[in-house]
Amino acid sequence: MAVEPVLTIEDLRTYFYSRSKRAFIRSVDGVGLQVRRGETLGIVGESGSGKSVTALSVIGLIDAEPGVITGRVGFRVNGTEWSLLPSIGDHVSLAEEDGRIVEVVKDNRGWRRKVDRLMHGVRGREISMIFQNPRVSLNPFVTIGSQVAESVLLNTGIRNRREAAEKARYWLEQVRMDSPGLRFAQYPGDLSGGMCQRAMIAMALSSEPSLLIADEPTTGLDSTIQSKIVELLDDLKKAVGVTTVLISHDINVVARLSDSVAVMYGGTVLEYGPADRVLSPDFLPKHPYVEALLESIPSERHIKDGLLPRAIEGEVLDTVNAPRGCRFFDRCHRITNGIEEKCRDLEPDLAEISAGHQMRCWLHIG
Amino acid sequence: MRFSSVRTAAFVLGRELAITALLLAGVSLVVFAILFLAPGDPFSLLLEGQMGDDAVREALGVPTAWYAQYLSWVSNILRGNFGTSVHTGLPVLSEIIRVGINTLYLTLGALLITLVIAIPIALLSARMGNTSLTLPLTIAAYVISALPVFWLGYIAIYISTHRFGAFPIVVGSSGTQGLNMTAFLLPIVVLGVGNGTISEVVRYLREEMGRVFAEEYIRTAKAKGGSVWRHSVREGFIVPITQIIATKIPFVLGGAVVVEQVFNWPGMGRMAWQAAQTRDYPLIMGITIIAAVIVRMGSLLQRVVHFMVNPAAAGD
Q1: What CATH code would you report for A1-126+210-306?
Q2: 3-state SS of chain B: helix, strand, coil percent to 5?
Q3: pLDDT, tens digit, for every residue of B266-304?
Q4: In Å, how far is B297's CA from the nearest CA of chain A?
Q5: Hey, where are the domains in chain A?
Q6: What residues in A contact B214, CB-CB < 8 Å?
């Protein structure tokens, strides 16, 4: 743990108000994570577990209200420290009932203005983002080359258009775009999804960021293209060595690219630690959810033992009516009589069970 | 790549011209049919009270069958001959061009007024949502758009002459064509405000801008530190604005007929009105064809702008 963290997230909560349900959707509900320089942090979880919202909260791109309501996000590069969230007290006031937030009053316009000011010179320049659905995430009215060159002009020292175009071409080559010279002048509509994702990656890297956030970079692509993009990300990681947050519901992708892993469920982190421990079925102890998650994907073991992958029973947690106790309570198979009451009524903390390995489960922290 | 975009351009242009030709054929046929079925015809109008029609027709070799009449009219138009006005005896085309210039001033000016009022409201409310500033403005736009233009015209005349004694209101009699600069403004403003399109421009533009602001590529633009406006202007502003101008040209022309009547503006609309009253067949048909051409040119312009904004998407 000698390497300093680039990104530190503490107690992040991002809520959305659902008019139809007259209640809060607790998309992110108390997330704390750290990303150290040079490492790749993988965030896995089912759809709706709050992975993407966590990332969007970090770079201030949450539009729906109320959005971020608690937390601290620190960002540190070469001794310069940024706080990426406005101080909560200035904009938000909360009302709690039984230790749960039931009312939020937030000055959203002031908040947004403040966020944009804090993010100036950080978003795009120090932190880049790759989105899912590359074909709709690129501007359909602007050529690929211009979009990459724009990022170069905005975020690097280069001010000359021709130099920027040169640099853009260089990055298109780096992401192994076939015939980059031709692609340069084409529109996103002329390119396949995989090519668009390469362009997206080129654009994100072209600002030479200190942190790259990849939000489901392989989702929505053909599986052959998926593995090519994963290969590319792996190679770039070795060549460029940029600190990365990788968000994916695909455990294989995360296992291949990540150094450490956070498993999210219902807006919280259930297990957090080195990738080879968290995602290895043989390493014990495991959080029951992670255990079930690993059971649900086909692996060598399934083939060898002639077993079928097992689905996790039950529904994904409805964060509007999150239970008082453990969020995985309804679907958990490991509850014993001794701890059942605790599991139902009291949410466990994310506690350290060995050095650098944290877990949120009464089985292991009892 | 350049070659393919040239080919797309040629294809789009060819298709548009084909549509225009079809449309003009349809319009000419419909106008002709309406006038043919209406009681009376130009010939009896010309020879009112004189000797029996049929004998003269035959003597002059004028066709009686409807298709023969139609074809002879169309073939003349194709050669640039729109005929002469029954009433004044002047060639139709040059008359239309002469007064058409005045209508062009009126309609373009009015369109400009409409946009100057509607665009800021649309942009503000797209950006900020419904606030204490944008909501009243939007409501005002809807109320104003609901006012009938002839009523607005008379109210404007009443207020400016009877209250303030301003503006020489009657622009010109049918004889004089000189336009006075101050007299110019009132009809233009009245048509601009009263043509009923302000609310539609506001609604459409706000919707499109709002939709584009929520597009994922705008989020990407924000994520790379770029300008949201720069990335949304093409799809969110240029495309919808040309689209709505093109679709609203008929409404502005229709409003111009009323406004020209109210303010005695020597334009195409008033000429059409008079022609209809005096049953000046060649003039009515000529004006209709020209109006259809103008409307089509609006759509054509829209296609050209779309193509310039995004060559890749204009093909479909």
Answers
A1: 3.40.50.300
A2: 75, 0, 25
A3: 899 999 999 988 888 889 989 999 999 988 888 888 888
A4: 24
A5: 1-126+210-306, 137-208
A6: 63
